[in-house]
Design goal:
The complex is a heterodimer of chains A (333) and B (323). Chain A is an alpha/beta fold and 333 residues long. Chain A folds into two domains: 245 residues, Rossmann fold; 73 residues, no CATH class. Chain A is 30% helix and 21% strand. Chain A is built from eleven helices and 13 strands. Chain A starts with 6 loop residues before the first strand and ends in a 15-residue tail after the last strand. Chain B has one domain: P-loop containing nucleotide triphosphate hydrolases (Rossmann fold, 3-Layer(aba) Sandwich). Helices cover 33% and strands 24% of the residues of chain B. In chain B, the strands form two sheets. An eight-stranded mixed sheet of chain B has the order 6-7-8-3-9-10-12-11, sandwiched between helices. In chain B, strands 2-1-4-5 form a four-stranded antiparallel sheet. In chain B, a hairpin with a 2-residue loop joins strand 4 and strand 5. The two termini of chain B are 22 Å apart. The chains are: A alpha/beta (333), B alpha/beta (323). The interface between A and B is large, with 73 and 78 residues. Iron/sulfur cluster (SF4) binds next to loops of chain B.
Chain lengths: 333, 323
């Protein structure tokens, strides 16, 4: 843990051109990812989790989006690299599992060939070898009768089977960093548990690291070392998984825990957080959660609170005036 | 649970798909649905759970005749859908809606949200054209999206926002039955709670029924009255949700229940015992499909398909341990 992080993100902001003006969808995103570690990104729908990962891989077209800040991968700055330079990073170094499998799959190519192709892009081998390895990967993601279904097309697979093909394609790249965007949302609990175990194995055996996006706090508990909680384009709490579950501090994080439907308890009502997430064209001035926060104080509407540890010795950081008085000197906009 | 007349009745529906094999060889057959029988009462929510690839989406589609079942019958509100002529089916579509599992491929990428919803409203003659803008704003608000979403294209939304567009589309026509296929799976827990509350309210106000396909047993517990558990194309257990989750009868239901993640880092890392290989629907095991993975399997399980045993209290199970 004393070595340099594999991936260091600082002051990252992704902006979209909306109605002629640049609007920041995310602001001041910062985290370190170490070898063989998993950081989970959680937060409400639309808060900028997928955008952050797509920005790390430079996938958003310059015409609609622009990036500020810094992304250092193994000592190399990625922000500002040309598309050709990024191509050398994508897949082999940093791979991504996309949230919606159909966006990543070619509908007119068989699922097996798509995995084999991913293998051959990164390694010289014969077609037969690639096919055998692709079938082995299909087995690993628990596709029954893999060899017989090698020649199926994506539309012949169920939602969760497609998702597992996309996972197999990413595994086949053997990346150093895997950006996994909701990779198990379409999977039932038994297969999900098996896939999570496979991913943990990959981290341990190939020193892979993961940025793991999920909205399931059960999955976070099973896979993450650290957790970044996002709200309206910002990280509002960052802590080890044990700390976060034992003592969530940000009122938004606490509210999230209240809203989980549990398999072991019957609830009359789930505590949805009242109000709505603001659209990126209408973020509030101060703390972005203030309009919905049950603990809101007067100063919350003034300047944005900075993400910092209440106790300087602790790595548990939170952006909330209840816990410390640090305000962000300049909003990074 | 409910004594009301069933809105949807499904009798012995089966569906197989051909999948290609090597050139020259005969195609393989995927047994996606194998003699499925179930019903949903008016105002009832039936949860459908089971392993990925076990046939849940195929079931949802076959019940609404978006794909043709090979055998079996589906009755909706006293009418046989299986033999309904196309024009009659078109009329019935207004009452039978589906929220697709994959929002990305079910939305037209070149159509703005407002146009997409306006098209549905006009096809089904839901309200006069002059009221469309108000109705569209209301639908977006109900699924937690700002009114400005109307002017945007599907790719400009996040995954969870797109999922909510699919929900808005299904709600727009005021259906009587909604097949919701993993409709809240991409949503964070807070928005999920809002959407579930919305669906619950609509159910109370309009007596809506749902077939609720999900892999989240927590959501099943919160939202559904009854649940059906599917394994490799067959229904293996049905019953009231609380009984089914607290005292699962079928060994597969027990395995599902035990593998459900709990939000606790210590508990979640204890390796769950998921035994055995996932079997293939191309060549399902003999007898009880679950026998190769079942810790309690007996000799007969390898030979005979277990029949459905009524267990009282609205519960039923297909397993040789019972009956
Ligand atoms: N091309 C685009 N143009 C304009 N706004 C966009 C575009 N793509 C995404 N957005 C907006 O940026 C915000 C962040 O989107 P992102 O996809 O990162 O959310 P997310 O956290 O992954 O959410 P979910 O959990 O629903 O997938 C959203 O409000 C979305 O509407
Ligand atoms: N058009 C098709 N052609 C061939 N096989 C198909 C087709 N549609 C579905 N199948 C197969 O039928 C089986 C059941 O698929 P289905 O989509 O119903 O599963 P599911 O229970 O919804 O799974 P998931 O939870 O992963 O969405 C799978 O083996 C799938 O590959
Ligand atoms: S029928 Fe036999 S194999 Fe199947 S679940 Fe029951 S005990 Fe297990
Ligand atoms: Mg996303
Ligand atoms: Mg499905």
């Amino acid at each position: 843990m004393t070595d340099a992080p594999v991936l260091a993100v600082r002051g990252l902001s992704t902006q979209f051109r909306i109605g002629g003006a640049w609007r920041a969808a995310t602001r001041n995103i910062a985290f370190d990812l170490y070898e063989n570690q998993t950081i989970a990104l959680v937060g409400e729908s639309g808060c900028g989790k997928s955008i952050t990962c797509q920005t790390i891989l430079g996938l958003l077209p310059a015409a609609v989006a622009r990036t500020e800040g810094s992304i250092v991968y193994q000592g190399r700055e990625l922000v500002g690299l040309s598309d050709a330079e990024m191509e050398t990073v994508r897949g082999k170094e940093i791979a991504m599992i996309f949230q919606e499998p159909m966006t990543a799959l070619n509908p007119v190519m068989t699922v097996g060939e798509q995995i084999a192709e991913a293998i051959r892009v990164h390694r010289r081998c014969t077609k037969a070898e690639a096919k055998a390895e692709a079938i082995a990967f299909m087995d690993r993601v628990r596709i029954p009768a893999a060899a017989q279904r090698y020649n199926d097309y994506p539309h012949q697979f169920s939602g969760g089977m497609r998702q597992r093909i996309v996972i197999a394609m990413a595994m086949a790249c053997k990346p150093k960093v895997l950006l996994a965007d909701e990779p198990t949302t379409a999977l039932d609990v038994t297969i999900q548990a098996q896939i999570l175990a496979e991913l943990r194995d990959l981290c341990a055996n190939f020193n892979m690291s993961m940025v793991f996006i999920t909205h399931s706090l059960g999955v976070v508990a099973a896979i993450a070392d650290r957790v970044a909680v996002m709200y309206a384009g910002e990280i509002v709490e960052l802590a080890s998984v044990e700390e976060l579950f034992a003592a969530p501090q940000h009122p938004y994080t606490r509210a999230l825990f209240q809203a989980i439907p549990r398999v072991d308890e019957t609830a009359e009502n789930l505590q949805a957080i009242p109000g709505q997430v603001p659209p990126i064209t209408a973020f509030p001035e101060g703390c972005r959660f203030a309009p919905r926060c049950p603990m809101r104080m007067e100063k919350c509407a003034g300047r944005p609170p900075r993400l910092a540890a209440a106790d300087p010795a602790s790595p548990h950081a939170v952006a909330c005036f209840l816990h410390h008085d640090l305000a962000l000197e300049e909003a990074a906009e | 649970m409910t004594t009301a007349q069933p809105l949807l009745q499904v009798f012995g529906v089966s569906k197989t798909f051909d999948v290609p094999r090597r050139i020259g060889a005969p195609p393989g057959k995927v047994h996606a649905l194998d003699d499925v029988t179930l019903d949903i009462a008016i105002g009832e929510t039936l949860g459908l759970v089971g392993e990925s690839g076990c046939g849940k989406s195929t079931a949802g589609r076959a019940f609404l005749r978006l794909i043709e079942p090979d055998t079996g019958e589906v009755w909706f509100d006293g009418e046989n859908l299986t033999t309904a002529i196309p024009s009659r089916m078109r009329t019935l579509r207004k009452r039978l809606q589906i929220i697709f599992q994959d929002p990305y491929s079910s939305l037209n990428p070149r159509q703005k949200v407002a146009d997409m919803l306006a098209e549905v409203l006009s096809v089904h003659k839901v309200c006069p054209r002059a009221e469309f803008p108000r109705r569209i704003a209301q639908l977006l608000d109900e699924v937690g999206l700002p009114a400005s979403a109307a002017d945007r294209f599907p790719h400009e939304f996040s995954g969870g926002q797109r999922q909510r567009l699919g929900i808005a589309r299904a709600l727009s026509v005021g259906p009587d039955l909604i097949v919701a296929d993993e409709a809240v799976s991409a949503l964070d827990v807070s928005i999920q709670a809002q959407i579930l509350d919305l669906l619950r309210r609509l159910k109370a106000e309009r007596n809506l029924s749902y077939l609720f396909i999900t892999h989240d047993l927590g959501v099943v517990r919160y939202f559904c009255q009854r649940a059906a558990v599917m394994y490799l194309g067959r229904i293996v257990e049905t019953g009231p949700v609380k009984d089914l989750l607290d005292e699962p009868l079928h060994p597969y239901t027990r395995m599902l229940r035990a593998a459900s993640p709990v939000p606790n880092p210590v508990e979640a890392r204890k390796t769950v015992q998921v035994t055995g290989e996932v079997p293939s629907p191309l060549n399902p095991p003999t007898g009880c499909h679950f026998h190769p993975r079942c810790p309690l399997a007996k000799d007969i399980c390898k030979q005979a398909r277990p029949t459905v045993t009524e267990m009282g209290g609205g519960r039923a199970v297909a397993c040789h341990l019972y009956g």
